[in-house]
Amino acid sequence: MPDVDSQQYGAWAKGARAFGKAIWEIAGAKIGPKIVFEHPGEATLPTSELVCDKGGMMVICAGTTGYNVSLDLRYHWMRQKRFQGSHLANDEQARAVNELVISGEVDPCLSRCFAFDDLPLAHQLMRDNAHPAGNMAILVNATDEGQGASG
Q: CATH for 7-85?
């Protein structure tokens, strides 16, 4: 996040506010989300903080873009927001989600599958935030997709 006294901060705030307005359009009202599930972390938490509704909560369940976050805390205390750390699910809930995937009711959206030798490429794509939307997988002890354990 840019320093609050810089021109870069103004540009960031303008983009974050535009994102918030897009949320309002989807919701059909000028109200931000009461709960924001925050997975990327470093790259997106400042925007999540801004768009989360007054009295709302950011549930932090990972930090795929980094763990060191800079925030303008004025949006936090002045609007009485909360942080909550979570692994997102307990064992029973995780099993229930797995059953939904197995039954086909939920599609986990596998966007790309890599050969094991391409593991460094997959990591680099994530590091550079150049990976495709959805989930990526690595083939372990398999040469082609579909050779592993399945439902």
A: 3.40.50.720
